[in-house]
Amino acid sequence: MMCKMVKKGVLGAALGAGALALLFGTSAPSYVKTAFHSVRQSAKDSVPVEFQIKRAKEQLAELDPAILKCLESVAREEYQIKKLDENISTARVELKRQGDELVALREHREATERLTSGEPQKRSDLDRELARRLDRYRDDKKTLATKEDTSRLRKQGLQAAIKQLKNMEAAKDVLQAKIEGVEAKLRQVEATQAAAAVSFDDSALARVKETVADLEERVHVMDQVASYQSRLVDKNASVSVEQPGRDVVKEIDAEFGTPKGSTASTDKNL
Predict the structure, then answer these.
(1) Torsion of Cα atoms, 236 then 240 then 241 then 246, to 10°
(2) b/e 189-208 (16+ beta carbons within 10 angstroms → b)
(3) Is the pTM of this model over 0.90?
(4) What angle do CA 78, 80, 84 make, to 5 degrees?
(5) Once rounded to an integer, what is the mean pLDDT over residues 26-45?
């Protein structure tokens, strides 16, 4: 069963390659490569920017363990180099003491040789002691030189590690600043897009403006009507004011004549 599936897959791939070769000829690999890059770029562009920013922050946070490990290595190396330098200082003091003793023993041998010219056995013992101490002095001197070289090399390595640590921390700070800059730019773009979306539909704003204009007109008309009504009321009130001593009936009779049967004519005949 599995063999059949593999065979079908190989056959399908071969047919697909053959179809591409027939369609595009020798340029088929270039078309395939371009299509692959296009699909990959489209997939990458479809990922939200917020997700990519979060991913970048997580990747940046993953640098912290490496920086901490580098810090621990630097601290450990500094301590070991310090102990090595203390050992070297002690070895130098010891080597100087051995050298002083060799010189003193050499002078003692010469004095003994002059005083005991007839005792070769004693001189031989001093020579063996001198040889033993000289060999030890030379061995310790070589050991000290090796420790000094080791200290020098380890200090160089320590300086390189410190430089690497500083570069890593500086690179992290630069990346942090860039991520923050991208995030701030994204917020600015989102704010601009939101403002554009609000001001894009002018019809709603126009309707509100029209409603407000109508309200202003109605309120103005109501105010004017109220003002006119107030003036009319004042005018009527001034006409209806009574004047003392005025006989309005006589004035009307004089203007139009006295009506027949009125009390005014009766009073006149009497």
Answers:
(1) 150
(2) eeeeeeeeeeeeeeeeeeee
(3) no
(4) 115
(5) 53
